[in-house]
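[INFO] parsing input record for Ribonuclease R
[DEBUG] input buffer:
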Amino acid sequence: MGSLNMRNNFVERLQTLIQNSKFKPRTITELKEFLEIRNVKKERELIDALHYLCSEGILIEHKKKYVVPGEFGFIKGEVVRSSNGYVFVKEIKTEKEYFVPPSHTKNTIVEDIVLIQVIEEPGQDSNKNAVAHVKAILKREKEFLVGTYVVEAGIAYVEVDTKHTKLKLKVIASEKVVEGHEVLLKTDEEGKWFVHDVLGHKDEPTTEILTLLYNFGIKSEFDQETLDEADNIPNEIPEHEYYMRRDLREDVIVTIDGADAKDLDDAVQLRINEQGNYLLGVHIADVSYYVEKDSYLDIEALERGTSVYLTNKVVPMLPQRLSNGICSLLPNVERLTLSCEMEIDNEGNVVSYEIFDSVIKTTARLTYDEVNLMIKGDQDTINKYGDIKDMLFQMSQLSKLIRQKRFQKGSVDFDAKEPKIIVDKDNVPVEIRIRERGDAEKLIEEFMLIANETVAKHFSEAKLPFVYRIHDLPSEAKVALVSGLVARLGYPELIVRNIEDPKEIQKMIEGVKGSTIDKTIQTLAIRMMSKAVYSEENIGHYGLAKEFYTHFTSPIRRYPDLIVHRLIREFFLEHNITKKTRDYWTRTLPKITEHASRKEQKAAEAERELLEIKKAEYMKPFEGCEFEGVISNVTEYGFYVELENTVQGLVSVESLEDFTRFEEEGYMILGTKNTFTIGDKVLVELVRADKYSKKIDFKFLKKTGN
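[DEBUG] output buffer:
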């Protein structure tokens, strides 16, 4: 995202011309004349505006004129893969991939946002990518490349080997760098790579996290201006806020989170009204009160997009003074909140609701484990929280009611195992636990879902600019492949015939529960689904079977939630529904939603990659040991086996010592001695676990049953 203050008048004027298709290609001189600029100050503002619009890909400089990219065949995309000088760019709107030859990459690297021009389209029957040239780098997401320093025959190289980038770059040797060092690479003015800094040796625990953060362009430290701004926020709530907000300090309100959570976004309360309906209050930290638009905190939060959770480290979206302090809904402390109170009848319908700003003081800070014990009837825990036990039991009843209603509409529940890596003080993994998802976790999930839905519906009916959380239909081809596999494995009645109805996906997943293919089909079903993203245009949420959905409940750790709070404040609390305000958000939201979606995906990738590293590191001491597992996926080069602790490894076809044939539609490897397919139970030996390549290799020993 560009950092120019959006109040620059020329940005608005030029964007209005572009939106109304009235912008014509002009040089800077022609633009000054057209806009009647007569002084140096205005000329500087125009130049700043043009730089900003070019950085966002809204305009591009082409043959000394500023033009709208789409009108000249330019396409905005993201560099997604790079290998030996070749680059692949994915168009942001369509996800179509383009191939860029080495001589036309402009030294672009993975995650750069670029403008490309298509040079050659492939034939209709060709599987090749269209050929394009990079015309401009709009934004460099990562300032550095990270690689391992090696010396071969006296020549220094840096090997960059990530999921999306494979390069071996010659660099100038340095006495400060030794083999095995992880280093930061940067380009000079001539486009040549040089070692900018040393992160540490690859075997050092701290280097591992630093390397990961740099690889994914995740900023771990806050700049001084942002920290100073956070430090200048007073701890005390101004007196006038108590009069302007609904005062809920005497109400019984609780937080329910993991035992180690510190950024407590949400609190809940429940009462029963005279009609016998539930009054559910969902109270969310009012981060928008503290993080003002265009402030240092806001610009930093926008850039980060989300908090990132890495084994024993959290990289927060906001400085800890806010995330773990004045915004966190700590027990018995007065906090500012935005509230959504819903009246829900005994069939799970929201019959009325209110959205308002409030001040609360939570009664108790409960953990999921404690609430799960209470729901199960643990007397010691019930005695500890005797004054709120009735409310918690009513919450449990309500959550089950609205959960049942959600599934009746077709919501798809992926109950996949989620691992948690336990590390020691040196960041070495000592245990892999499976996260529990008990009634307490489901309770909070349901309350957040229904609050998110209510807020989204409110904005949709008001026809105001908004940030929706959308989820498109899955790929028809992928659904056919997975449901066909389910049929071949003995469940023909579960074939998905209408992908527009999520109930059919739900039926397939529920139908194999408890079988040997249960977890595998869930994994394949997750892969076949579209990615949920943020958008200013609503198409509904397929997986949740909801017509309206947003993210309102986690503004401490997600930037879109902060924007939703800002929109609530501007449109409904301050009643600022002027044309100017609506136009501003109509222009601004598409850029925010696109950026936030990308940042969310990068954070998820980083979290997954660290899990792979830590799983391989955990398994290393067990090389040579035997394990029982289930075949979770089959490819032409072998099959993957998943162990009970969620670790997955490859049995390669070469290691089978048998003539084999791969059958893609059946997810099968056919050999003269054995046939392997998804769901087969097998005994394997761990041959190799390498955290650097993130690879685990097994050797097949025998089948152990079906």
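[INFO] The chain is about 30% helix and 30% strand.
[INFO] shutting down worker
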